[in-house]
Design a protein that fits this description.
Elements lengths: L10 H9 L5 E4 L8 H11 L12 E4 L9 E4 L5 H8 L6 H10 L5 E2 L10 E4 L7 H4 L13 E2 L2 E6 L6 E5 L1 E6 L2 E5 L5 H11 L4 E7 L3 H6 L14 H8 L4 E4 L6 E3 L4 E13 L9 E4 L5 E3 L4 E11 L4 E4 L5 H22 L4 E5 L9 E6 L9 H12 L5 E6 L7 H10 L3 H4 E8 L20 E8 L31
Parallel strand pairs: 1-2, 3-18, 4-12, 20-21, 21-23
Antiparallel strand pairs: 2-3, 5-17, 6-9, 7-8, 7-11, 9-10, 10-17, 11-14, 12-13, 14-17, 15-16, 19-20, 22-23
Helix pairs in contact: 4-8, 4-9, 9-10
């Protein structure tokens, strides 16, 4: 069976698929310290994204020997290239957003299996055990020496609305604060925070599971946001559609919650009502960790706390982690954003937008490039309507670049060429000031511009790099002869 035919159902089958492919996955037996050294290595090997240069696109990496941990390996960079993500989904890089869009439209609900069948509970550590300590069991890494503490960065946080019972799964910043406590940072508006607030208003703890090391379909699906997945939409059903089979859940051993049954590791606990801690209380660094825009975020003065009740895991577990500003974030956030934009625009302007790309320089959240096809004079101006729809589809989007159908949205050089030759700043730019964007953009602050009324508010901008319909004849790209390149270079692919 070839690597392309292997069915991916969990993290281990994903790793097996990549191990059959050239240059997608490397292992090392060199002992590594999870405190900053591990991320320091991968920064050079394959992080890419907005990570400090030099860096590059490269393979995922498994560290077989982590200092202080005999039984746990660490995987980093699984989703750090779009090509690798496409390979894990059995498609091509340019079709990923369309696949995700279709999966949202045809959800497959998760199912619950008995605990006796759950691989994630092969080994159980209870917080009531005298020697229980999160960091003695799991090597939570830091990205830099300045981090507030050790972080779990790829945990699928799953909880239920205490009033309706509806579930949601998202990824959040989780900092280990003590032997049985983890702080959890919520960007405003996240659904799990809505659940937490409801429970807290009732004076109740919110049971929660954190599943680490799962099928990449779950990780990508978890990053959809409203309006594509409104409150009450369980994003695990997207992964079910992608794999054409339901995600299997199991009941937790210590709290009234459910966990992903084939996860490598599950942390079980409760979000405590009314309890807050300073994120950097153990280090006084003033910093949190490197965030996706490429800057280290400030430690939050008050963040909610998870009281950990148990840790369960597979035998010889693999802890999955990522570097905050790496292209892993670009793909996790960006591909669902592309799918959301395609869904929104197709409803209003059928057949007009040909593709969407949220590229690495835009962190997957701040920039989208829309490829449009003007088919008649009546389509002139609709490109800007498409941009407005993109902002509606994803509220944290800051910039939209519009290009014609002859520009490759996945080639930033081609996009910049369009901006250079088909764009005039005074007539091709649309400013939309005073709109809520994302709090981790450091330029969205009154200190940066007097036009910004409060932190997290931005001037959203449309860069229209399309050719006006009546000037199309003046902007035709040079056409070359179509040839069989394989006559001259056997095995060469034009793609």
């Amino acid at each position: 069976m070839s690597g392309e035919q292997l069915k991916v159902t969990d993290l281990r089958s994903a790793i097996e698929l990549l191990s059959r492919c050239d240059d997608e996955l490397i292992y090392t037996d060199e002992p590594v310290d999870p405190m900053a050294e591990l991320a320091g290595v991968y920064r050079y090997i394959g992080a890419h994204g907005t990570v400090q240069r030099p860096t590059q696109m490269g393979p995922a990496m498994i560290f077989n020997k982590v200092k202080g941990y005999d039984d746990v390996r660490v995987l980093i960079g699984l989703l750090c290239t779009r090509k690798r993500v496409a390979r894990l989904f059995g498609t091509t890089a340019d079709k990923l957003a369309f696949m995700l869009k279709d999966a949202v439209a045809t959800p497959v609900a998760p199912i619950v299996i008995p605990q006796s069948q759950a691989a994630c509970q092969e080994v159980v550590h209870l917080a009531s055990d005298a020697d229980f300590d999160i960091l003695k069991i799991l090597p939570a890494p830091t990205n830099t020496p300045e981090d507030a503490g050790p972080y779990f960065t790829m945990g699928m946080c799953y909880a239920a609305d205490p009033e309706t019972g509806e579930h949601d799964v998202t990824i959040h910043r989780l900092c280990v604060q003590s032997k049985d406590e983890i702080s959890m940072y919520f960007v405003p508006g996240r659904h799990l925070d809505t659940f937490r607030q409801k429970a807290e208003a009732a004076g109740q703890a919110l049971p929660i599971s954190i599943s680490i090391g799962v099928d990449p379909a779950i990780e990508i699906g978890a990053c959809f946001e409203p309006p594509t997945t409104p409150l009450g939409f369980d994003e695990l059903s997207i992964a079910g559609s992608l794999r054409n089979q339901p995600v299997e859940l199991t009941d937790c051993v210590s709290v009234k919650a459910r966990a992903i049954a084939n996860a490598e590791i599950v942390i079980e606990g409760e979000l405590l009502p009314g309890v807050r801690v300073r994120e950097d209380q153990n280090t006084d660094s003033g910093k949190a960790m490197p965030e996706f825009p490429g800057y280290t975020g400030s430690a939050q003065p008050q963040v909610p706390v998870i009281k950990v009740k148990a840790i369960t895991h597979r035998r010889h577990p693999i802890l999955q982690t990522c570097i905050g500003p790496s292209d892993e974030h670009t793909n996790l956030a960006g591909i669902p954003t592309e799918a959301s934009i395609l869904q929104m625009v197709e409803r209003a302007l059928p057949g007009f937008v040909q593709n969407v790309h949220c590229p690495s320089p835009g962190t997957g959240k701040y920039l989208a490039v829309l490829q449009v096809k003007k088919r008649s004079p009546a389509d002139e101006g609709r490109q800007r309507q498409a941009a407005l729809l993109a902002f509606s589809a994803f509220s944290e989007l800051k910039h939209v670049m519009l290009v014609d159908e002859d520009v490759d949205v996945f080639d930033i050089n081609d996009v910049m060429w369009a901006m250079t030759t088909r764009y005039q700043g005074d007539v091709s730019t649309v400013f939309i000031p005073g709109v809520r964007c994302h709090p981790l953009d450091p330029s969205s602050d009154p200190a940066f511009s007097p036009s910004v009324r409060g932190h997290g508010i931005a001037c959203k901008t449309i860069f229209d790099c399309t050719v006006p319909w009546d000037l199309k004849a003046n902007f035709k790209r040079s056409q070359f002869m179509e040839v069989d390149v394989n006559r001259f270079v056997p095995g060469f692919s034009k793609k």
